[in-house]
Design goal:
This protein has one domain. By secondary structure, it is mostly beta strands. Strands 1, 2, 3, 4, 5, 6, 7, 8 and 9 form a nine-stranded antiparallel sheet that branches. The mean pLDDT is 94. Helix content is 0%, strand content 66%. The radius of gyration is 18 Å and the shape is globular. The protein is built from no helices and nine strands.
Length: 143
């Protein structure tokens, strides 16, 4: 458990809320052999920022399930559901279901994880996307 903080850092108003927001964050995690299951959740309320933008009252839920092979490949299924409680009825939820594959490898001597994923939006506001593609690179800094 801890705090979440949203900063109004966008240079394009269509890409951000232009609001300062804060709220609680929670995570639960269970690892058993090659399986990892858990969830991340937070809720943000706006407390400052542009007065010509609506207030922010938003929940984020990210349940996930991962399976890791001995060869360093991980398959992950998750959702990154967002509820905008200030939106009109029927427009509140954005819910993509994502499938991702990643592999731990090395770039020179530095370990890293590279991956590719895709998501399908089972719920979205009108005009929202139907699908998405994600590429990722995660640098690993072992102790």
């Amino acid at each position: 458990m801890g705090p979440a903080l949203l900063l109004p850092t966008t240079s394009d108003p269509s890409l951000g809320t232009e609001k300062w927001a804060a709220g609680p964050t929670f995570v639960v995690l269970k690892q058993a052999g090659p399986w990892t299951a858990g969830a991340l959740a937070n809720h943000l309320w706006s407390y400052g920022g542009s007065s010509d933008r609506g207030d922010m009252n938003q929940t984020f839920l990210q349940p996930f399930l991962s399976y890791s092979t001995p060869g360093g490949i991980t398959l992950t299924l998750n959702t990154e559901a967002t509820a905008n409680w200030e939106a009109e009825s029927g427009e509140k939820w954005t819910v993509p279901v994502n499938l991702q594959v990643s592999k731990v490898t090395r770039l020179g001597r530095r370990p890293m994880s590279i991956g590719l994923g895709a998501g399908y939006f089972v719920e979205k506001p009108e005009g929202g996307p139907s699908w998405k593609v994600r590429a990722l690179v995660t640098l690993i800094f072992p102790r």
